[in-house]
Amino acid sequence: MYKSLVRPLLFRYDPEQVHHFSFKSLKLLNKLPGVGTLSRKRYHIKHPSLEKELFGIKFPNPVGLAAGFDKNAVAFKEFSNLGFGFIEIGTLTPKPQDGNPKKRLFRLREDEAIVNRMGFNNGGVDAAVERLKQNKPMGHPDHVIIGGNIGKNKVTPNDQAVDDYVICFNKLFNYVDYFTVNVSSPNTPGLRELQDRKPLTHILQTLQDLNDQKTCRKPILLKIAPDLTDDQLLDIIGIVADTKIDGVIATNTTIERKNLKSDIQLQQEAGGLSGKPLTNRATEVIKFLHERSNGAFPIVGVGGIMSPKDAREKLEAGASLVQLYTGFVYEGPALVKNINKSIAAQARS
User: Fold this and answer.
1) CB-CB contact of 92 with 172 (8 Å)
2) pLDDT tens digits, residue range 111-136?
3) Which top CATH class is 2-348?
4) Residue stretches of the annotated binding site
5) Alpha-helix runs per DSSP H in the chain
6) Which residues of the sequence carry a binding annotation for substrate (predicted)?
7) CA quadruple 271, 71, 164, 237: dihedral positive or negative?
8) Is 185 a catalytic residue?
9) What number of other Cβ atoms are within 10 A of residue 17's Cβ?
10) Which residues are annotated as a binding site for substrate?
11) 96-112 confidence digits (pLDDT tens)
12) How do the pLDDT tens digits run along the chain, 349 residues long?
């Protein structure tokens, strides 16, 4: 129904407007009696093979919603009703910011891809915290597992970036289950420079030192770009070992534009490319990190997961969990269900 009826209608309109409309519709529908229950019955798949305990968190299934979709923690419960095992909010910054000028979100339909240059548009960490207070406490059967993806404000110089990450870390600490440090978006000027060994080690070690002061620490993951060289990926493995963070999310969007079929003007739009063109590269990065580190840390696989097969390939390459974004836009909530069904069926065979 989504691909034959809903998607053709939505794809007639501006992507960012559709995004906001979809959120409002999802929120409104879930206010109707019984809709949340029906959604869970339709999309939730329960099977022991889907359950995963990772860095101290028990995930009901390995399929999450990637950061960037519910930036402001507006609809985490509603998305959980669609079968996701966890929701990553953000990227959040200390202060609210509008992001880059519109138009900044583009569909490359022939490639089943999206280009975005949103620029960490979000309402700020304080507003998100207020919404996260509505989540059930950790340990409650209705608790939604939340990842907090954190970044720096555009106006913050790179040599002060660590302060922004610390602010977000402290404010979100009691309301998320894990953290993701985002230094890999291509849409904030200079941000990817923070992936270099010295500044990245400083940010991660500072957060780890804060973490160690807490009564109960929270897992910290690092989200990396797919455009890193093998040497840079080896640096990432070394940084994870040095700082003892809990894992890596591979990967963010790419600045590459190879073998695309869509209109050349769309191909040339600045920003990060996600979707099907990223499928193979994201899997290659996962495999490289897993093999070269000898499986030393968990990897969350994201990038071009458009089918159950894509998800299984990332898990076989070494990922412990996967996340969806563009695949969810193109395939709808049935993709979450079908991935979980496929993993469960494979376990039974």
Assistant:
1) yes
2) 999 999 999 999 999 999 999 999 99
3) alpha beta
4) 67-71, 91, 116-120, 149, 182, 187, 223, 251-253, 275, 304, 325-326
5) 7-10, 15-31, 35-43, 76-80, 125-132, 161-172, 197-213, 230-243, 264-267, 279-292, 308-317, 326-331, 334-348
6) 71, 116-120, 182, 187, 252-253
7) negative
8) yes
9) 12
10) 71, 116-120, 182, 187, 252-253
11) 999 999 999 999 999 99
12) 899 999 999 999 999 999 999 999 999 999 999 999 999 999 999 999 999 999 999 999 999 999 999 999 999 999 999 999 999 999 999 999 999 999 999 999 999 999 999 999 999 999 999 999 999 998 899 999 999 999 999 999 999 999 999 999 999 999 999 999 999 999 899 999 999 999 999 999 999 999 999 999 999 999 999 999 999 999 999 999 999 999 999 999 999 999 999 999 999 999 999 999 999 999 999 999 999 999 999 999 999 999 999 999 999 999 999 999 999 999 999 999 999 999 999 988 7
Cα–Cα distances (Å) from 39 to 20, 47, 84, 111, in that order, read 20, 18, 11, 30
User: Which residue type occupies 74?
Assistant: V
Q: Which amino acid is at 14?
A: D
CA distance 213 to 114: 41
Domain boundaries in the chain? 2-348
Binding residues for FMN: 67-71, 91, 149, 182, 223, 251, 275, 304, 325-326
d(CA 313, CA 71): 27
Give the Cα separation of 327 and 325 in Å (integer). Answer: 6
Per-residue DSSP letters for 68-128? TSSTTSSSHHHHHTTT-SEEEEEEE-SS-B--SPSP-EEEEGGGTEEEE---S-B--HHHH
Give the separation between CA 106 and CA 95, rounded to whole angstroms: 26
